[in-house]
Amino acid sequence: MKSKKRKSVGNQIIEGLTELAEALERGEALEKRFTVHTVELPPKPADYSPRKVRDTRNLLAASQPVFASLLGVSTALVQHWEQGFRKPSRMACRLLDEINRDPKRWTQMIGARKTA
Q: What is the pTM of this model?
């Protein structure tokens, strides 16, 4: 039996790019030649001021330590956000957006109960 010689990853990349370049030069519709996926990304996360961070936490009726634990950050960091000493990272802002989008889900996650 003859064993097939595998192409190196570098050769596979060069082959694929050459094929792409040739298709572009011929003006081919790429989706007819290649697997093309179109994705729709969510909008950029909102910016969070100290007030907006505090409002988000209050939406869940959570203390700073509970809120910090939910976000996976330290209580000190939440305090710094709420006092304006630091700004939440883009990743933290994305999570804060999700909390604001569906606060009931997050409230249930922490087991908080709102009382009348």
A: 0.65
